Amino acid sequence: MTALKNDRFLRALLKQPVDVTPVWMMRQAGRYLPEYRASRANAGDFMSLCMNPAFACEVTLQPLDRYPQLDAAILFSDILTIPDAMGQGLYFETGEGPRFKKVVSTLADIEALPIPDPQKDLGYVMDAVSTIRRELNGRVPLIGFAGSPWTLATYMVEGGSSKDFRKSKAMLYDNPQAMHLLLDKLAQSVTSYLNGQILAGAQAVQIFDSWGGSLSAAAYQEFSLAYMRKIVSGLIREHDGRKVPVILFTKGGGLWLESIADAGADALGLDWTCDLGEARRRVGSKVALQGNMDPTVLYANPQAIRSEVARILASYGTGSGHVFNLGHGITPEVKPEHAGAFLEAVHELSAQYHV
Ligand code: CP3
After folding, report:
1. Is residue 3 part of a domain?
2. So what's the pLDDT on residue 1?
């Protein structure tokens, strides 16, 4: 494999010295970019982009071609590829988000779910990873990802997105054994899926626990964190002579950082509700931190964006162990120039913290 030309993202995740703070954006390939909208129109729809390795590679590289400051690429795919491979029948209704043809409601439904084989059932994702690695040619590292078992379970039980998690939380409290069986199957599926991505060329992996923050403190430990810990302990941590860092991102997990930091990952993703400097003091030397600008700051003008970047960098302070990111995904309404101003500000203003 070609040597990496820019490895500051991997170095910061392992708390090794860097020249400037590395930066990438969750959902960096997406609808705020006109070139993404054009590719999606060409492919027909979102799932066709994901399922065709050439299209997935094209849209993964679009933000990197536009913004030379980006220090990492993220595989273009979706967390819901796993439930789809389990036979749930994923589809997207325009403007309505994800939907499933089959919904998981009973213990019998859960018992019948297969554990997907990454090569046989998700080969299109493995092919996308190897295609992107080849095309990146060492420019920046490639991040692979999956959803957390709890986050995937909410979509499978609700049949799509939800505001109140009515069915999934009812199952958790009414029938905890059924929920545990579902989460256990998902943890096994996510482990082999992420290991497949690592073997195909992903150089770091992130677990998106987008809905962990909807749980009580006790339920979070038992129904979300326990399964992420299990996944982390089953991941390949070194490949091709390099460590493969693991990032856990629980949106709304700010109250539980100490216990998340004990789950065995290399880094924690933070949303914008926590103070980065305080988070650093709380987790100590256990993990690196990734985040955490409120993505809505990108609606403001470039000067305001720059001040917010400066504030967050100062809050973290000197030394490595910080990967700059948004606290959640960039939204379709953001002007591409504003994303550019954000990325430029991170590199320009962070050099002073790495001397
Ligand atoms: O970060 C990246 O650039 C990589 C691509 C990526 C997508 N989805 C592409 C996508 C990643 C990492 C995801 C993860 C994902 N998918 C999560 C976890 C992260 C988070 O946002 O909390 C979740 C919860 C999903 C499920 C999902 N996929 C939803 C709820 C939606 C619809 C909401 C929306 O933004 O439209 C999707 C669709 C989706 N996934 C899009 C993209 C670019 C938009 C599809 C389109 O082009 O219309």
Report:
1. no
2. 62
Q: Does 195 sit behind a cis peptide bond, omega within 30 degrees of 0 on the bond before it?
A: no
Closest residue (by CA) to atom 46 of ligand 1?
A: 46
pLDDT in tens, 241-252: 999 999 999 999
**Is the C-beta atom of 55 inside 6 A of ligand 1?**
no
Q: What torsion, rounded to 10 degrees, do the Cα atoms 334, 337, 340, 344 define?
A: -130
CB of 153 sitting under 6 A from ligand 1: no
Question: What 3-state class would DSSP assign to 124?
Answer: helix
DSSP 331: P
Q: What does the pLDDT average to over 189-196?
A: 98
> Do the domain assignments include residue 2?
no
Domain of 170, in residue numbers: 8-354
Choose the residue to mutate in 37, 77, 79, 209 for probing ligand 1, maximizing ligand atoms within 8 Å of C-beta: 79
Mean per-residue pLDDT over the chain, rounded: 97
- Per-residue pLDDT at 95: 77
Task: Give the type of residue at 102.
Answer: K
Mean local confidence (pLDDT), 56-69: 98
Q: How many domains does the chain have?
A: 1
Please tell me the pTM assigned to this model: 0.97
Ligand 1 centre and the CA of 27: distance in Å? Answer: 7
